[in-house]
UniProtKB/TrEMBL annotation:
GO terms for biological process, alphabetical: phosphorelay signal transduction system; regulation of DNA-templated transcription
A GO term for molecular function: DNA binding
Keyword RNA-binding: no
Alphabetic keyword roster: DNA-binding, Phosphoprotein, Transcription, Transcription regulation
SMART domains for this protein: HTH_LUXR (SM00421), REC (SM00448)
CDD domains per record: LuxR_C_like, REC_NarL-like
Residues recorded as bearing 4-aspartylphosphate in the entry: D54
Superkingdom to which the source organism belongs: Bacteria
Stretches of the chain forming a coiled coil according to its record: none
Location of the Response regulatory domain: 3-121
UniProt cross-references to InterPro entries, sorted A to Z: CheY-like_superfamily, NreC/VraR/RcsB-like_REC, Sig_transdc_resp-reg_C-effctor, Sig_transdc_resp-reg_receiver, Tscrpt_reg_LuxR_C, WalR-like
Record carries keyword Zinc-finger: no
The protein's name in its UniProt record: Response regulator
Length: 220
């Protein structure tokens, strides 16, 4: 059973998401929060698998709530998926750096929303396709702050290659095709890279790849 915490300051939005989740046999909404501070407290109380967190909330916003959840060792099993009405690039990067496992716009189709919850519960990075493209376009067309990222010397050449492809927005199957390996081997490369770089999840691994310069910026 996938346990979900809903955090949004608009009761109608929470009710809509809850209505979608409650009819699923494998998903249970365990708590609802109206602000980021309450979301963190309820996460500690209920230890959900997924925290669906609105990015703009009173008292404590979604990015800070995500940062507090990600920094708490007791909440290591909680995967935060950020929700927003807008696909704003600066929010995407800050949310991922804060420790979010994914990022979705609220106008997502119901079936895609339910799929997103299940993907995030497996520990896979989750970004809405349009946001993934914007994130990649932004960070491969501007200078990177090299030296501030992870130490990629810890990785083998094949692990570096897999991480670079992940940072370009490719799935495990696409990485496998590009590297001429099995999807399981591709997943193994990614998981080992996460462990070596102490990345919380695949989304954070993408951020580290950009910050370390593994994905080279294009000439503008």
């Amino acid at each position: 059973m996938i346990r979900v915490l809903l955090a949004d300051d608009q009761p109608l939005i929470r009710s809509g998401f809850r209505a979608l989740l409650d009819i699923e046999d494998d998903i249970e909404v365990v708590a609802e929060a109206a602000d980021g501070s309450e979301a963190v407290a309820l996460a500690r109380e209920h230890l959900p698998d997924i925290a669906l967190v609105d990015i703009q909330m009173p008292v404590v916003d979604g990015i800070e709530a995500t940062r507090r959840i990600a920094a708490d060792p007791a909440l290591a099993g909680v995967h935060v998926v950020i929700l927003t009405n807008y696909g704003l690039d600066e929010y995407v990067f800050h949310a991922l750096r804060a420790g979010a496992a994914g990022f979705l716009v609220k106008d997502i189709q119901p079936e895609d929303f339910l799929h997103a919850v299940r993907v995030a519960a497996r520990g896979d990075a989750l970004l809405a396709p349009s946001i993934t493209r914007r994130l990649i376009d932004r960070f491969v067309t501007q200078p990177l702050h090299t030296g501030a990222g992870a130490d990629l010397d810890e990785l083998t050449n094949r692990e570096r290659e897999a991480v670079a492809l992940l940072a370009q927005g490719l799935s495990n199957d696409q990485i496998a095709d590009r590297m001429v390996i099995s999807p399981m081997t591709a997943k193994t490369h990614i998981n080992r890279a996460m462990a070596k770089l102490h990345a919380r999840d695949r989304a954070q691994l993408v951020v580290l790849a950009y910050e370390a310069g593994l994905v080279a910026p294009r000439n503008s």
